[in-house]
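Protein modeling request. Please complete all fields; requests missing the sequence field cannot be processed.
Requester role: graduate student
Desired output: 3D structure, token encoding
Chains: 1
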Amino acid sequence: MPSDGTIGYLVGKLTVLRVECPRCDRSGRYQVARLVAKFGPDYLLTDWLHERTLDCPYKNEQGVTRACGAHMPDLRDLP
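Delivered output (79 residues):
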């Protein structure tokens, strides 16, 4: 996760933010500039990812400890 956890932190570091889920094989690519324009630079990436995965068929599966596996792999390499 970026140091402050906001979409604004990605500006100048990433052009595109990828989201992947190994469990259901869904994925997406989002332009950072569009994310900043739509949500503002202070919007938390965790809140944004939660909203993107609300329709995940595994997210609210009962009895599963790690239902939704959505993550943002590009964040691993950021300082």
